[in-house]
Amino acid sequence: MTPHSPSILFRRSRPSAHLPARLRHAVEDLKLDIANPSRGANEEQVHKAVRKSLPEGEIPPDSFVGQIIANNQSNFDAMLNNQFCKDMAAASTEEEKAKVLKGYKWYTVDFMYCENLMRYDAGRASNAPTIKDVLEGAQHVQSTYDFAQTILKTCTDDLGIPEESVFAAKKSAAVTDYGSFEVDTAQDQDWFTSKIATIPCIQGYYQIAKMLQKTSVDKDTVWYKTWALENMDWLYCESQIKFFEANKPPVVLPEMEETWNRIFRTACGHEVDFFALGENPQDL
After folding, report:
1. Sign of the torsion formed by the C-alpha atoms of 215, 24, 242 and 253
2. DSSP labels, 53-72
3. Are 48 and 9 in contact (CB under 8 A)?
4. 162 contact partners, CB below 8 Å, separation of at least 6
């Protein structure tokens, strides 16, 4: 394996067209870091950071990811225990399913979330100091564009939302605020610290999906098939844990830890707000 070759970390056993935009963007961002010689550990070093495969669903408590979750457990639990996902699991009557479906349609229109990221990545690429940075920025724009197209297809084909309704949907504060937070974090923090914002998404979605697997009354629903099943891939979680183990600083100063915890808590809060969209949907 050559240093900084294209990463096989985060590679799913099967391709997916339904992963949420935030999870897709987080994964692609980490893969680009692994492939970039100027940013930390290469793929071989990431693999060596944790020499054995982790048992599915078990985050080592002494790992960076395990510790930051433990430091902010109540915030992480608030995300895991959001009401909308509980409603997804409990829906059994036609009335309950119709209510959840309406909420899921509005939650899924995070197509608009991609717009903020594409604008930011395009601006970053246009102002990049080197050709390598320009190319990386272009990769981000292309990846986010591809995600937006698959989400649009999910909205129209799987959820039956007219395309014109998707484009006409008004951006919610949750979408705008989350996108702004990610852009600001990427601009204001070093590359390692900015990636902490991805931990609630990657680790949390997996845990919520496994909860839905255990507790869903009806698994023949569009939200179970296009959200729960798609977020049950432990490989993403394991790869992220290894990524942080390979790149964490050897010495941690109190102010660094304070910043990390703040970013993690803020990201959890934005995820809570995003799931709350399903409880208060707009008509599409």
Report:
1. negative
2. PPPTT---TTSHHHHHHHHT
3. no
4. 156, 284
Please list, in sequence order, all residues whose beta carbon lies within 8 angstroms of the beta carbon of residue 98, skipping any fewer than 6 positions away. none
| pLDDT, tens only, 141-154 | 787 787 788 888 88
21-34+61-279 classified as CATH 1.20.910.10: yes
Pairwise CA distance, residues 3 & 45, whole Å: 9
What pLDDT, in 10s, does the model give residues 55-77? 899 999 999 999 999 999 999 99
Task: Give Cα separations from 19 to 24, 25, 203, 254 (angstroms).
Answer: 6, 10, 14, 35
pTM of the shown model: 0.86
Q: For residue 51, is it left (φ>0), alpha (ψ between -120 and 50) or beta?
A: alpha
Residues in Cβ contact with 182 at an 8 Å cutoff, skipping those fewer than 6 apart: 25, 117, 197
Nearest to 59 by CA among 257, 236, 254: 236
CA–CA distance, 25 with 22 (Å, rounded to integer): 5
Which tokens is 273 given? 């707000």
Domain ranges of the chain: 21-34+61-279
Direct distance between the N- and C-terminal alpha carbons of the chain, in angstroms, rounded to an integer: 48
Report the alpha-carbon distance of residue 157 to residue 77 in Å, rounded. Answer: 33
- Residue 87 token pair: 């409603």
Local structure of 50: helix, strand or coil: coil
